[in-house]
Amino acid sequence: MRIQSKNEEQIYLEKFGLTDYEAKAYLSLIEHGPLKAGDISYHSSIPRTKSYPTVNSLVKKRLVIILEDKPLTYQAVAPDEALEKLMVDEENQLKSMKQTIASLKKLASSGRGKANEQEGRHLILSNDSVPRKLEALTSSARSSIKFLVDNWGVKLVEDLLRPLIRSASNDVEVTAIMGLDPGPMPEFLTKLSGIDRARVVRYSRSQSIFIFDHETILMVNSTTASGMLIKSRELAKVLEDGLFEKIWSSGLDVKHLLPIANLRGGDDAFDLLDQDKLHRIFVQAVSDFIDNDVLLNTIGESFIKKIEEQIHLNLFGQSTDVIIPIVTRLMAQSLGDDSTVRYDPETRLLTVDIVDQTSNLPSSIWLFILAGVLQRSGEPLEIIKKVSYPSENRHVILAKVTTGMGEK
Predict the structure, then answer these.
(1) Structural domains in the chain?
(2) What is the pTM of this model?
């Protein structure tokens, strides 16, 4: 039996922060037991191209586990255990938010007179109060409205469309950032033509943030649908200058997105908004292409030159004894916990032991940075050995920091 329309269980799962596709996939696994990705697509009516990213997202959220890898078979975690984990995560997030607010409140009141002592106070709103409060704040905004919403929060924005467009027409600057998980794009995006600053990003933090007139913040928890209303210019500035600006820069304007979405294959093109993932794939592609250390060193030197021109770092001007330990640690982090990076300053040997490695070289920008720094210093990196251990799913690269003219 295929799951075609939204049932009560799916609606409740979406309240826990799951996307439409994730809820359908999870319900299919609950109903039918362990399934392969193709079978999940069949039983849940999810497009086959979306089944793998959807189920992998459920694995990351600890709602699904992998039973076998050939072929990949998935099993749903028991509902009571899975949803309890989600509730604990949301409770921890709320606790962290409260601690942040308390610290900001203390900062805001430090050295100020009684006139500012009320700033930073917060109010908890029930789930049925949030939509009414949002509409009231939107209608009364004087200068600006900014919001960053997740896939569930998009539904709140849909109900706010009329007051939002009305405010925009009254010279209120509206900045909309809508985070969508893999799945169908909301039809109401076509109605945002009245908002000049509107972008779509990949964002799945189970939380939506609205800021009015640079001082009033309403945070909405997507799991409980409850909200926290805060009045604090300091917190608003932190969110606007940090979180909003960073996420805005990675988004795609709605006016560009809509023509793409109407084309055949547009939904798949939308998945390319995940710039971090594209960045990792690009590094993998470059690593596959490079089969000698001369090319690695040449690309690395050009790379660090571009970094210095655009980011203005002083790090690469330090001695290699200072740079190498820093870069190797960053390389280890980028490759993940299952991989190791070791550098011996006595032998000047670099050993990179990678799990599930298929490229000629480690897929890390930090290897290119290290090679570029060493090339510039006259101590180019020489690849001595590359060994694969298929039975252990490991790949080891051994390289040496040469002494330049005399050694290589």
Answers:
(1) 8-77 (1.10.10.10), 86-271 (3.30.870.10), 275-401 (3.30.1380)
(2) 0.51
